[in-house]
């Protein structure tokens, strides 16, 4: 028998003066309640309650046990209330890591709303284009563009998918012409991200065909914002995820190139250490990001 259930039944029976009312309160049958009470008394080797046809009465030792058990249940209720309060009002330092571009575009701008909702959390943002190890670097949550994590201690939650596209400024295309085929790219200045998977190859697909184009960079950088700035100044054709340059495309500052061809897409994942119980500060931030991305309809915008 569950000791906590036995204690709770005993306390409720003593408070209500009735075993049947205590059973009803705890949503159990009278026979089950009787078995719990008998089990408690047998385990303690003492009679706690005297029963009559109408009421139950505490024995002397039962009264003493009742006072102690009542405080135990109050302590448990208080502990559960405290946990509930922490879950609803998380606190502490939340360390989040992601690329510089993602932090600039989608973490920094959203933080005021998150902190307004959860003022007890202080967010430390690690903006870096290298992947932290989470556990080794004491990171609570990382936003990554990986489809899986090699470490089984890492939990993944999908946030969105994004296209990678080629784009250039109107000034560059006016001066150098617009490529009409993948091979035309070999005659243009390409601005490439050095941390991309095989940055010196462009895997372009359309319909059922795929073209692998070896390329060399007029400029290469490990920071997407550097590449973006160069493209906006007319320095060449960049290759970047759509989430990095979406506003530039909408405004016309950058123009898609070969948009009917697809580069391998990226999946934006939320990665966090595997735990049976995810800390409230991590869980609320994950739910917040997922909610914001769904509301903004980012995946549709970034994959269209």
Question: What is the strand content?
Answer: 15-25%
Rg, Cα atoms, Å: 31 Å
Q: What CATH first level of the largest domain would be assigned?
A: Alpha Beta
Q: Specify the CATH homologous superfamily of the largest domain.
A: Periplasmic binding protein-like II
- Write the CATH architecture name of the largest domain: 3-Layer(aba) Sandwich
Assembly state: single chain
Structure write-up:
Helices cover 42% and strands 24% of the residues. The longest helix has 29 residues. The protein contains eleven helices and 14 strands. The protein has three domains: 85 residues, Arc Repressor Mutant, subunit A, CATH 1.10.10; 107 residues, D-Maltodextrin-Binding Protein, domain 2; 94 residues, D-Maltodextrin-Binding Protein, domain 2 (3-Layer(aba) Sandwich), CATH 3.40.190.10. A five-stranded mixed β-sheet has the order 4-3-5-14-6. A five-stranded mixed β-sheet has the order 11-8-12-7-13. The mean pLDDT is 88. With 304 residues, it is of the alpha/beta class.
Brief account:
This protein is of the alpha/beta class. It contains eleven helices and 14 strands.
